[in-house]
Design brief:
By secondary structure, the chain is α+β, with helices and mostly antiparallel strands. It has one domain: (Glycosyl)asparaginase (Glutamine Phosphoribosylpyrophosphate, subunit 1, domain 1, 4-Layer Sandwich), CATH 3.60.20.30. Helices cover 34% and strands 25% of the residues. It contains nine helices and 14 strands. It has an eight-stranded mixed beta sheet. Strands 9-10-11-12 form a four-stranded antiparallel beta sheet. β3 (94-101), α3 (107-117) and β4 (122-124) form a beta-alpha-beta unit. α1 (23-45) runs antiparallel to α2 (50-63), α2 packs antiparallel against α3 and α8 packs across α9. The structure holds aspartic acid. Aspartic acid binds at residues 12, 68, 165-166, 175-177, 195, 197-198, 207-209, 228-229, 231, 234, 273.
Length: 310
């Protein structure tokens, strides 16, 4: 059973058109996606759980400054980094989530600790940080989260009322959130998502990423899903759960359900972005309605894929 696993990850969707990025940058992104995929494959090939695999994979992406999560998180209107993350175990539908946390090196591990040790599902802000201290999670100072590119992005719009989804410029949207879904050798599913949210966000804005059912969902009977895109629309569309519901109640296959949600249902209310999903048979769907999505996966037969564009 050890090789009977599947895993997929994303590093955000958006206006990713071939030729827009230097070859070197493109290579860096692909390397980072490969590194994260390999980390997840290693866990699963040794018989590890889907839950551990999605956490491990997301941690690698959080540690990479190229993505808007963990270390690479964007700046808020106050010049801070406020991160959101969530994780769900398809075995028992247990879930953990955190929102608006600062100085936590790996928010996804905090979300997992919330699930396993807090007796709650969702902790936010100062309380979540206090819980992180009690759990002994690694903290980092502001300098760890400083990235010049992100800083300049923020400087461009900091004195305005506008906010941006990661590197977006007017209509040039790009979402750098990260996520992972996996099926392990025991037939269990899990999903995880982590983000820094939107550049220049204020008023304690929270997107879909830490919301179970919107940005993240896992149920062994149907599928595991992690989303990226315009969070407000993904919340309203309850997107991750919608894929599962179309499979459960609409009798659709994973591919049909994921496509319908991204290409029709969320698009019809104005949402752009994409998702990654895996079902109990190891089928993988990675639809997006933007120009591109950083994504990678390993199918049941052992073949892999690492892509950015359409
Ligand atoms: N969905 C995330 C949010 O709205 C953004 C993203 O996917 O990059 O916070």
């Amino acid at each position: 059973m050890k090789n009977q696993f599947a895993i997929a990850l994303h590093g955000g969707a958006g206006t990713l058109v071939k030729g827009m990025m230097t070859e070197e940058k493109e290579h860096q992104y692909k390397q980072a996606l490969k590194e994260a995929l390999d980390a997840g494959i290693e866990v699963l090939s040794k018989g590890g759980s889907a839950l551990d695999a999605v956490e491990t994979t997301v941690r690698v992406l959080e540690d990479c400054p190229l993505f808007n999560a963990g270390r690479g998180s964007v700046f808020t209107a106050d010049g801070l980094h406020e991160m959101d993350a969530s994780i769900m175990d398809g075995r028992n539908k247990e879930a953990g989530a955190v929102s608006l946390v600062q100085h936590i090196k790996n928010p996804i591990s905090l979300a997992k600790a919330v699930m396993l040790h807090s007796g709650h599902v969702f902790l936010a802000g100062k309380g979540a940080e206090q819980f992180a201290k009690e759990q002994g999670l690694e903290e980092c100072g502001d300098e760890y989260f400083y990235d010049e590119f992100r800083y300049l992005q923020w400087q461009e719009i900091k004195d305005s009322d506008s906010f941006q989804l990661d590197h977006s410029k007017s209509k040039d949207f790009k979402f750098g959130t990260v996520g992972c879904v996996a099926l392990d050798g025991e037939g269990n599913l899990a999903a995880a998502t982590s983000t820094g949210g939107m550049t220049n966000k204020k008023f304690g804005r929270v997107g879909d990423s830490p919301m179970i059912g919107a940005g993240t969902y896992a149920n062994n009977e149907t599928c595991a899903v992690s989303c990226t895109g315009s969070g407000e629309y993904f919340i309203r569309g309850v997107v991750a759960y919608d894929v599962s519901a179309l499979m459960e109640f609409g009798r659709k296959s994973l591919i049909e359900a994921a496509d319908e949600v991204i290409q029709k249902r969320v698009l019809s209310i104005g949402g752009d972005g994409g998702l990654i999903a895996v079902d109990a048979n190891g089928n993988i769907a990675m639809p997006f309605n933007t120009e591109g999505m950083y994504r990678a996966c390993r199918y049941m037969d052992g073949s892999t894929e690492i892509e950015i564009y359409r």
